[in-house]
Write a structure and sequence with these properties.
heterotrimer; A mainly alpha (313); B mainly alpha (483); C mainly alpha (218); B: 483 residues; mainly alpha; two-stranded antiparallel sheet; 19 helices; 76% helix; globular; C: 218 residues; 78% helix; 0% strand
């Protein structure tokens, strides 16, 4: 019973934290660029405003366009439900598999791309095609990086990976682990549309990807999509944080352990947010045709990760 | 003592050329004299080896001259002597003092590195010395600075260095194999120690090591498909350097391969090393012969012929003791013949000012002696009797039949025939016909013909009989490599 | 202690290899020089680590030499060349970047495959890093054959040497010191000669693009 409550609490925490993370990231970037920036809770206001607005849908759009936001949001929520945010094992441990997580996220991406194509606008199609190109290139990297982690832990189960790394701290420093982390970090940048692959701060560029796909959305649909993509960012951060540096995750459901788990999760998110903010301030956006090169570099990293974990066994 | 006699003169000559400023012709003469001393050192080793001893010197047996080392030392010091007498500044006078000094400094260092490579027992130092041959010779290729020579030397330096680095990786792997089994010892890189320990080594590791070593030293020996630098470098270098590179540098690189072949043979038995060597050998032979037909440049013609002959030596190395005997005899013959040919080609180039075959005609009328030697040398190079290369090729064919590889021999003979036709047709065009109008008649520096004639005489002697002193050396080599 | 040693060595070896991969991903020569510098410094670190845990004093000397020669002297000379030829960058290699990276991945796997008997033969705690060294050797070889600029090829060659040095340090705790010194001397002289030729190529051809070196054919 407690476990179910904790699980619900985790999900609620994730849902509430997600817009805040995006806001924090924007605020951090602004500070790094010597701007004052909007407060970190600005995204909450935006979401509330969007939920209150009227929806305008192109007359060429089919049912896919209306269904997509819900699918995208549902996929993100489902992923959030599977993740060991605070405690392992989760009640949904039986299906809490890394492969499930990745392919649920991909399902969201797929529907978003469909929705971009659906109204037949030029920008939407362009964004969708780019998004799918990047997804397709990032896919093998993700699979390999997961494989590297799974080889280390002997399982693709999220709870298992976390538990295994906690019992064997040396493994966190092993090259396989670090290389997989690096590879997944690059993929995270690509999948969540961060610099240097996509610029999240603007929808005025010809080279935009994510923003081009959602250009046709408005009102509560847009709110759902924005919320889902914030959740996706949070999920990736939590994956990177909890899978590679699992310390702090509660193994027993005591209040003390849970409090520690919340604190450590916040610290990990903050560290990653700072890292991404610094990175985004320092690097310029890559020209689109160099993106495949970056992704193949991350693929090589993942490949190295697999080979060295395979040898370390 | 013989080692000092062999190794110090080139160093002394290089030093002399470096410090005497301004450069004088006397430096060249001193170099020529000292080169004879070095040759005498090699002969002393020869006498000692024929007497049944194996001269050893230096800490941890740094220097050691068995029959194989002695043969190579003789070839290297002999060709270095030729180059010293006939090089820039003495017989070859188209160079200013600066170029002559540069030649004297680096050619002698080049000779020293080659001599050290073949007389050291330590395979680590052998590698260091062979790598150093690239460095010392590369700076001499663009003695005349032209686009072509800069290009040739870049290819040479890069491909040579990268190749030789792979040979070092192989050496490290072999050392790893030894250390894993026996433990860390300073003498572990000594060839004698390695060979004696070989039966206990891990065969998989030593095989992997040999792959790297063969590719590495094979690059330096101009084996196909790593040969691409060779025609460029050999054709663009000044004649005396071409003579050294083609005559002995290839042989020195092959020497390294043979040393390792002996170790691998002791470790995993016959077959593995031999098959790989023969594969590269046949490939080189094929590429060399076929390229001979299409050549338009006589220095490149000679260079491709070197690839062909290196391939032939490799084929011999795989055919058992008889084959090794034939291969080593061929190595010796090729050293003499090819250094002579490149020096003669230098004289032709000097007179006609072109390396294109169609630019040369009436050679026999313009320079009767040079032309005559050139023609005889070409016939020797393609393996016609009564010259040494015929005998060694014949011995090789016989070894092939004894070893039971008639198909291989048939292939080799077919390729040699193609090369033969290619060379002879080119030779005719150069020798006869009317000379171009602006080319003067008469021999420059006539005395230079004496040593070149001496080379032809040596080839003739080797073609009539293999003297006991030579065959004694070669038999001992066969027992070293294939006991 | 031993497992820490093994972990540390493999970690450093992976870094050495990854700096080698930078050559395939970046296009500007300064990035290559930086990658080479860091690679050499990490390599010196490997030598020092193996010297410390393996109890080999000679390796400290090797580490110092690596640091001074390859971590400082050669990068400085490379930097000088690079400033001289600022306009030269690797814009169109023979094999494009994405394919190059994939080929590099395959080469590393191939390195693992060929080194299996070697790793199996060894008992040393450092053995797990040896395939990475072989991977670097193969990747550097690929850089030399697939890039057009003379300077890139030189850096590729230097990295090849680093790979072999790493192999020697990991496999045998370093080859005998006296031979090692000879190898160092050769490496340095070889680099200097290459440097002379890079300048000459630039003087005579007005470019470092070895694609332009096509006077000698067949």
């Amino acid at each position: 019973m407690t476990a179910v409550l904790v699980q619900l609490a985790q999900l609620a925490l994730a849902l509430t934290l997600a817009p805040g993370l995006v806001g924090t990231l924007r605020w951090l970037k602004a500070r790094l660029q010597n701007r004052r920036g909007a407060p970190a809770w600005q995204p909450y206001f935006e979401l509330r405003k969007l939920f209150g607005k009227e929806v305008v849908v192109s007359e060429n759009a089919s049912w896919i366009f209306r269904a997509a936001p819900f699918v995208v949001f549902a996929a993100a929520v489902a992923v959030a439900a599977l993740l060991p945010w605070l405690a392992v094992p989760t009640p949904l441990d039986a299906v809490g598999d890394l492969l499930v997580v990745v392919y649920l996220l991909l399902l969201g991406t797929f529907f978003l791309a469909l929705a971009g194509l659906d109204p037949g606008s030029a920008f939407g199609g362009m964004g969708s095609s780019r998004e799918m190109t990047i997804s397709a290139l990032a896919e093998p990297t993700v699979a390999l990086a997961i494989f590297a982690l799974a080889l280390g832990a002997g399982s693709t189960n999220l709870g298992q990976i976390v538990a295994r790394t906690m019992t064997n701290p040396g493994a966190a420093l092993s090259p396989g682990h670090l290389l997989a982390f690096a590879a997944l970090f690059v993929v995270m940048l690509a999948e969540t549309g961060r610099l240097p692959i996509d610029n999240p701060a603007t929808h005025l560029e010809l080279t935009m990807i994510h923003e081009a796909m959602v250009l046709e959305y408005s009102g509560r649909y847009l709110a759902l999509i924005e919320w889902a993509s914030a959740l996706k960012l949070l999920v990736f951060f939590a994956l990177l944080g909890n899978l590679f540096v699992p310390w702090g995750v509660a193994v027993a459901l005591t209040p003390g352990a849970l409090a520690l788990a919340v604190a450590s999760l916040l610290v990990k998110l903050a560290v990653l947010a700072v890292a991404v903010a610094v990175l985004e301030t320092r690097v310029a956006k890559l020209r689109l045709f160099r993106v495949p090169e970056l992704l193949s570099a991350s693929f090589v990293l993942a490949l190295l990760a697999v080979t060295s974990s395979f040898l370390a066994r | 003592m013989s080692f000092l006699l062999l190794l110090l003169p080139p160093l002394a000559s290089a030093l002399l050329a470096a410090i005497v400023r301004p450069y004088r012709a006397a430096v060249g003469w001193a170099n020529a004299g000292l080169s004879l001393v070095s040759l005498a050192g090699a002969v002393a080793l020869w006498v000692a080896v024929l007497g049944g001893e194996v001269p050893v010197a230096g800490p941890d047996d740094l220097l050691r001259a068995d029959a194989l080392s002695t043969l190579l030392a003789l070839c290297v010091s002999g060709v270095a002597t030729l180059a010293a007498w006939l090089g820039p500044g003495l017989a070859d006078d188209g160079w200013d003092a600066r170029q002559a000094r540069r030649f004297r400094v680096f050619a002698n260092l080049f000779a020293f590195t080659m001599l050290f490579a073949v007389t050291t027992d330590n395979v680590g130092f052998m590698w260091v010395a062979i790598e150093a041959t690239t460095i010392t010779s590369a700076l001499l290729i663009p003695l005349h600075r032209s686009r072509a020579s800069v290009e040739a030397s870049w290819k040479y330096v890069l491909i040579g260095s990268v190749g030789i680095a792979l040979a070092f990786a192989g050496t490290v792997l072999a050392y790893f194999d030894f250390v894993t089994l026996v433990g860390r010892e300073t003498v572990a890189l000594n060839w004698t120690v390695l060979r004696d320990a070989a039966p206990a080594l891990n065969p998989r590791v030593i095989q992997l090591a040999f792959v790297f070593i063969l590719i590495g030293y094979g690059t330096k020996a101009g084996l196909a498909p790593m040969h691409t630098w060779l025609p460029d470098a050999h054709s663009e270098a000044p004649a005396a350097l071409s003579a050294m590179m083609s005559g002995v540098l290839l042989a020195v690189a092959l020497y390294a391969v043979v040393r390792w072949q002996a170790v691998v043979r002791a470790a995993v038995g016959t077959g593995f090393a031999e098959n790989m060597i023969v594969l590269l050998g046949v490939l080189s032979l094929a590429i060399g012969s076929l390229s001979l037909v299409a050549q338009r440049n006589y220095k490149r013609l000679l260079a491709y012929s070197s690839i062909e002959h290196t391939g032939l030596v490799c084929v011999g190395l795989a055919l058992g003791p008889l084959g090794i005997f034939a291969a080593m005899l061929h190595l010796l013959n090729h050293s003499v013949a090819k250094s002579m040919m490149f020096l003669l080609a230098g004289r032709v180039l000097h007179r006609y000012r072109t390396a294109e075959i169609h630019g040369v005609s009436g050679l026999l009328r313009v320079m009767p002696w040079t032309g005559g030697l050139f023609a005889a040398g070409m016939l020797a190079v393609v393996g016609l009797p009564p010259f040494g290369l015929f005998v060694s090729e014949f011995a090789l064919v016989r070894a092939g039949f004894v070893a039971g590889r008639p198909a291989l021999i048939a292939l080799v003979l077919a390729l040699l025939a193609i090369g033969f036709v290619g060379v002879i047709s080119h030779l005719n065009r150069m020798l006869y016909g009317a000379p171009p109008e602006d080319v003067a008649t008469g021999e420059p520096s006539r005395w230079a013909l004496i040593p070149l004639g001496g080379c032809l005489a040596a080839l003739f002697v080797l073609g009539v009989t293999v003297p006991a002193a030579v065959s004694g050396l070669l038999t001992r080599i066969a027992t070293i490599v294939a006991p | 202690m031993q497992s820490l040693f093994a972990q540390l060595v493999v970690l450093q070896s992976s870094l050495v290899l990854i700096f080698g991969l930078v050559l395939l991903w970046r296009r500007r020569v300064p990035a290559y020089v930086n990658a080479f510098t860091w690679q050499s410094i990490v390599l010196a670190g490997v030598a020092a680590t193996v010297g410390w845990f393996g109890g080999e004093r000679e390796l400290y000397l090797i580490a110092c030499l690596l640091f001074v020669v390859k971590g400082m002297a050669i990068p400085r000379l490379l930097g000088r060349m690079e400033r001289r030829f600022t306009s030269e960058s690797e814009l169109a290699p023979y094999v494009n970047t994405a394919t190059s990276l994939l080929i590099a991945g395959v080469l590393v796997l191939f390195g693992y495959a060929v080194m299996r008997p070697v790793v199996a033969a060894s008992e040393l705690p450092t053995r797990a890093g040896m395939p990475l060294a072989m991977g670097l050797v193969l990747v550097s070889l690929f850089v030399v054959v697939s890039r057009k600029k003379a300077l890139t090829q030189v850096v590729g060659f230097l990295m090849l040497e680093n790979g072999i040095a790493l192999l020697a340090i990991l496999g045998t705790y370093g080859i005998p010191l006296i031979v090692e010194l000879g190898v160092f001397l050769d490496a340095l002289m070889g680099f200097l000669v290459m440097q002379i030729f890079v300048y000459r190529i630039h003087e005579t051809f007005d470019t470092m693009d070895v694609d332009q070196l096509d006077r000698l054919r067949h």
